[in-house]
Design goal:
The protein has about 325 residues and is of the alpha+beta class. Helices cover about 30% and strands about 20% of the residues. Strand 10 and strand 11 form a beta hairpin. The structure holds flavin-adenine dinucleotide (FAD) and iron/sulfur cluster.
Length: about 325
């Protein structure tokens, strides 16, 4: 690992100033991703700014919904009574990720900024446009079983690994940011993560030195009917092959609103908008869920080793919707 300078930031403005002034500086939150990347020489910061003592950890009700501190721990967000009661989809998604020990360290902001688990990205001896722009993509013609089926480009076929972010995408969350110079800004979740295009090195639209201070989720009526389904190779310590965050608002026996987001299928949380539109005004039957899944998955473009994800995605959408519809009965 390359030697680096460690600085403990006293508050958010100080942390933002320190990172924004040095292109090779990084914020250190829980460290569960950054430190691994540093040990593998994928990330080589010369300055690490510890933000763990900054008090941006509160979870509080707002007039619009709820605000979750960017530096709060994943465990605390998942277990907070307000989140469990009003946003059970988020609780389920967080608890589907990593392990208890990692969730105790991992922060909410850090979770959104974790980097892809593409093995070629982690192996500094392999070409990878995300790690080293212009070097090529080892996965495009390589072992791409875990990779994208939506929105990929010739430069990168990686997927974004977070579970928490898939629920936040379905719930139309907003990321609150402190920028250098003291300005505060908000990025809607749909615009926060990026597709790879020609710049796969950029995972998000967050600028260097910008700090995630909070994540806001608007009020909704999805708590009664929501479910996070994660399909993976092992029951623990495994990232999603495919995941689906599903939420329904019912009006009698008709779907008034539907939210669906998928993980493990794209470079960003994949909002299944076609499927959502097809569900509105329909009865919550298996046949209607299947029509919605077919419409969404018809656009999938699998790679050589991940064709199975198309059928898996289709079945996962149907099952997640069934579980969401029946979740008030369990
Ligand atoms: C073995 C293992 C299994 C895992 N399994 C899963 C899984 O199944 N599902 C899942 O979703 N995740 C999984 N994870 C990933 C884990 O959830 C992330 O590593 C964690 O959420 C990152 O949070 P952190 O606070 O530790 O971030 P750090 O590692 O400290 O930081 C990550 C990045 O975010 C930046 N950063 C951190 N906080 C901020 C902020 N507030 N503002 C701006 N930049 C910031 C850092 O500079 C760094 O670039 C797993 C991790 C491990 C090690
Ligand atoms: S898929 Fe993306 S992260 Fe993986 S090798 Fe290709 S460029 Fe790198």
């Amino acid at each position: 690992m390359k030697p680096f300078k460690y600085i403990n930031a006293k508050d958010a403005p100080a942390a933002v100033k320190l990172v924004s002034e040095n292109p090779n500086a990084r914020f250190l939150a829980g460290g569960t991703n950054l430190l691994d990347l540093m040990k593998e020489n994928v990330e080589q910061p010369d300055e690490v700014i510890d933000i763990t003592r900054i008090a941006l950890t509160q979870i509080k009700a707002t007039s619009a919904g709820v605000s979750i501190g960017g530096l709060g721990k994943n465990t605390d967000a998942a277990n907070h009574p307000m989140i469990r009661q009003n946003y059970p989809l988020l609780t389920q998604a967080i608890l589907a990720g990593a392990s208890g020990q990692i969730r105790n360290m991992a922060t909410n902001g850090g979770n959104l900024l974790q980097r892809t688990r593409c093995p070629y990205f982690y192996d500094v001896n392999m070409p990878c446009n995300k790690r080293e722009p212009g070097s090529g993509c080892g996965a495009l013609e390589g072992i791409n079983r875990m990779h994208a089926i939506f929105g990929w480009s010739e430069t990168c076929v990686a997927v974004f690994p977070s579970d928490m972010a898939i629920a936040l995408a379905a719930l139309d969350a907003v990321v609150k940011i402190q920028s250098p110079g003291g300005q505060e800004k908000s990025i809607p979740f749909a615009d926060f993560h990026r597709l790879p295009g020609d710049t796969p090195e950029k995972d998000t639209n967050l600028g260097h030195g910008e700090l995630i201070t909070a994540i806001e989720i608007p009020k909704n009526n999805f708590a009664e009917h929501s479910y996070y389904l994660k399909v993976r190779d092992r029951a623990s310590y495994a990232f999603a092959l495919v995941s689906v965050a599903a939420a329904l608002e019912m009006n009698g026996n008709v779907i008034k609103q539907a939210r669906l987001a998928m993980g493990g299928v794209a470079h960003k949380p994949w909002r299944a908008l076609k499927a959502e539109q097809m569900l509105v005004g329909k009865e919550p039957t298996e046949a209607n869920f299947k029509l919605a899944a077919d419409a969404e998955m018809a656009e999938a473009k699998p790679l050589e080793h991940n064709k199975f994800k198309v059928e898996l995605g289709n079945r996962s959408i149907v099952l997640a919707l069934q579980m969401a519809f029946n979740s008030d009965k369990s």
